[in-house]
Amino acid sequence: xxxxxxxxxxxxxxxxxxxxxxxxxxxxxxxxxxxxxxxxxxxxxxxxxxxxxxxxxxxxxxxxxxxxxxxxxxxxxxxxxxxxxxxxxxxxxxxxxxxxxxxxxxxxxxxxxxxxxxxxxxxxxxxxxxxxxxxxxxxxxxxxxxxxxxxxxxxxxxxxxxxxxxxxxxxxxxxxxxxxxxxxxxxxxxxxxxxxxxxxxxxxxxxxxxxxxxxxxxxxxxxxxxxxxxxxxxxxxxxxxxxxxxxxxxxxxxxxxxxxxxxxxxxxxxxxxxxxxxxxxxxxxxxxxxxxxxxxxxxxxxxxxxxxxxxxxxxxxxxxxxxxxxxxxxxxxxxxxxxxxxxxxxxxxxxxxxxxxxxxxxxxxxxxxxxxxxxxxxxxxxxxxxxxxxxxxxxxxxxxxxxxxxxxxxxxxxxxxxxxxxxxxxxxxxxxxxxxxxxxxxxxxxxxxxxxxxxxxxxxxx
Length: 462
Fold this sequence. Notes:
Helix content is 47%, strand content 7%. The protein is built from 14 helices and nine strands.
């Protein structure tokens, strides 16, 4: 369980933040110097060098999205040009990729950031450029909405790349693709010119996630812990019935893969922040958005509290809460978990993603009059961020291409590099971890500089 620093303030991280962006710049420049003329899609580091990992190209947007975040933080035009050119030359074909559920990662972090920065006057956009970014975001939202498994009676979900039977917890991140397309005025049209409201489809997908992949301690099964999540749900596509929970990247369907849980925390928090602002929209008056935001808030709180109860005392997540040797690690009761321990790896990327969600959720809770709960979420987030900024997790090694160390990609498949003599993988980085700690740092920097809070939907509601 995390030991929350009740007195830490955002301003206390100012020096860490300045150091962070300098290291971040060095890492991006180093990676691009090696990959400038390569079509390789970097995913995870092995011996400190980024390499691909055949599955899908879901991490490409993090590469160029990181450059855009670096530009926003530094004002260095090199990173803007890198992010823009990479987005247009490498991500354009992904806009209409019908075979995946992860547009929120690739398209949201590239075209989404470019459109947002244009709206916020961080970059100068010609009208045709903004229209181009908007069109990409509209198409992406429709592509994700089309990837639909119907469960009947107005229920369904965006299915994973595994097929129409499969619902992934991380698909919550692509719900912002539907929301973005809707807010840009797009209408999803299916067979026989049937119009489907993107917001209704978004809510239907979230309901399926909450009903089948998130647990609320109501006795659903003997492993039902409030706030626990499962990676995957399996359905009978013939009759729409739910069959079982499963896990691809976690230990099992009955344990909690913490990165999946972190995606849920961040996804719920972002949607809650957005829909709190959408509740009074006249064109959505036929939808009970008060009930939806209540469900989002409860889900976000429950999942966050479970996450915080099962991380190490310093806020670092173990890769799975039910991993085989986790009890041996927990019995040590160290003040800080050793990422090079002999029992189970930690996953710093899960902590970075969850931390971002905690800070966003804290703002929503405070705005809703829940000051004490909001304060606790914020303090937990700042506690985790302080640890992520430490020398043990932030790589200042110029020979290492990764930024955030000690992440895990796919433990069951053994994809994570394990040094000779080590008992567990450690010391490596991943594209999503590096991207999200940058997004987390930008959220903090904007707060310290007195700017509008960082949200994916900035500029979409005007």
